[in-house]
Write a structure and sequence with these properties.
By secondary structure, the protein is mainly beta. The protein contains seven helices and 21 strands. A hairpin with an 8-residue loop joins strand 4 (153-162) and strand 5.
Length: 408
């Protein structure tokens, strides 16, 4: 017999409980019910038991009329206390929809664009301030003037690019020159664009200050500008005579400072302080001519030896150097006669006396002061015989002029 056949009839037990009848069934009554119970299959009994349990539980719980106690949760394991945790803030992942910082403006300005733009130019130094354009200046084909009648004109000579403010994009540097027939100056300016795309001036990179007599060209480095400069030993220095250096300039603290290359020129080996002096030229009767000797003194005050000083003497027409020294050459113009003579090398502190025999026909000039001569000295090795410049303030004694007197 199965366990189901020996178990009490749960249906009858629950019916008796509900009707208030006896819950204990006598043995005879139990035996009388066996036949009916066998008619049920084990499967039906099992199903009925499960269903009766599910229905009877709430009924039994409420039979006394007391409030139902809380039903414990299915999980009987007590939860562990919650421990607060600290989570590092998540790094936001860029996405197409999230806002991002605007990229820096591209300050790489094409040369043609700069040459036809309106630029903010700082005032030029010294005497150039009144002639060279400054402030808001409109350029056309790389040129600009303060006014139509201005003697000096500003020009954009060269344009290069470098990342001057270290923002990952390039900016623009331009070599500008403002000059005329008699004077001029160069400097380098830096330019960028603002967020709206307008050209703005970053500042002056380099100008002709200190021992810098000129700026010949520039080039863009990684984050700096290199400038080829020449020494400032005199005005109008020919390129063939000047010393050259490359100096590097970078932006620091909102301005440009030198960060590389030499910061001074050594003494220029082509430059030295030469001077010439002479006395009055007196000519005495000598037959039908008046003759005399012009004596000139040439000195070298340094700082360099003068390898080949040259002296040029100008006398009025009719006067001659007779005989002509082998070191001299004669040049004739409409107003005067010139004699150009080469001297021997002069060391620093050295001097040399230079003499020329001069005569004139007495009947052409008369007596007394009949004119004047002039003499000048310089040093040059160029084919064009361009004088080497001298130290600043040293050119006042490079020439002299005195009277020519014919005695009776």
């Amino acid at each position: 017999m199965s366990d189901h056949d020996t178990s009490p009839d749960l249906d009858d037990a629950f019916a008796a409980f509900r009707s208030g009848g006896p819950l204990v069934v006598p043995a005879g009554a139990w035996a009388a019910r066996k036949v009916a119970r066998r008619r049920r299959t084990n499967r039906l009994v099992a199903t009925g038991v499960v269903a009766a349990v599910l229905v009877a539980v709430p009924v039994l719980a409420n039979a006394g009329g007391d409030p139902a106690p809380p039903v414990p949760p299915a999980q009987t394991v007590s939860p562990s206390p919650t421990v607060p945790t600290t989570t590092a803030p998540a790094t936001p992942t860029p996405s197409a929809t999230s806002p991002s910082a605007a990229p820096p403006p591209d300050g790489r300005i094409h040369e043609k664009t700069l040459a036809n733009a309106t630029l903010d130019l700082p005032a030029w130094p010294g005497n150039l301030a009144d002639e060279c354009p400054s402030g808001r200046v409109r350029f056309s084909d790389g040129r600009a003037q303060r006014s139509a009648g201005a003697e000096l004109r500003a020009s954009i000579v060269q344009v290069v690019h470098a990342d001057l403010d270290r923002d990952g994009t390039q900016e623009t540097a331009a070599l500008l020159d403002c000059s005329g027939l008699e004077m001029g100056e160069a400097r380098v300016l830096a330019f960028d664009r603002d967020p709206a795309g307008a050209i703005v001036t970053m500042g002056v990179v380099i100008g002709e200050t200190g021992d810098i007599g000129g700026i010949r060209r520039i080039r863009g480095e990684d984050r700096s500008i290199a400038a080829e400069v020449i020494d400032g030993s005199g005005d109008g220095i020919p390129d063939s005579l000047a010393q050259r250096q490359w100096r590097i300039y970078s932006r620091s603290g909102g301005r440009f400072v030198q960060t590389g290359g030499p910061n001074a020129f050594p003494p220029n080996p082509r430059i030295t302080d030469l001077s010439v002096t002479g006395s009055e030229l007196r000519l005495a009767p000598d037959g039908d001519r008046a003759t005399g000797t012009l004596r000139l003194t040439v000195r070298n005050a340094g700082p360099q030896p003068a390898a080949a000083p040259r002296v040029q003497v100008d006398v009025p027409k009719g006067f001659e150097v007779r005989p002509l020294p082998s070191s001299c050459t004669r040049f004739v113009s409409s107003q005067s006669i010139s004699y150009r003579c080469e001297l021997k090398a002069l060391p620093v502190g050295g001097r040399a006396t230079f003499e020329l025999p001069i005569s004139v026909v007495r009947s052409q000039v008369g007596t007394g002061v009949v004119g004047e001569y002039s003499a000048k000295v310089w040093w040059s090795k160029t084919a064009e015989d361009v004088p080497y410049p001298e130290p600043a303030g040293a050119t006042k004694d490079n020439s002299t002029s005195r009277d020519i007197v014919v005695t009776g």
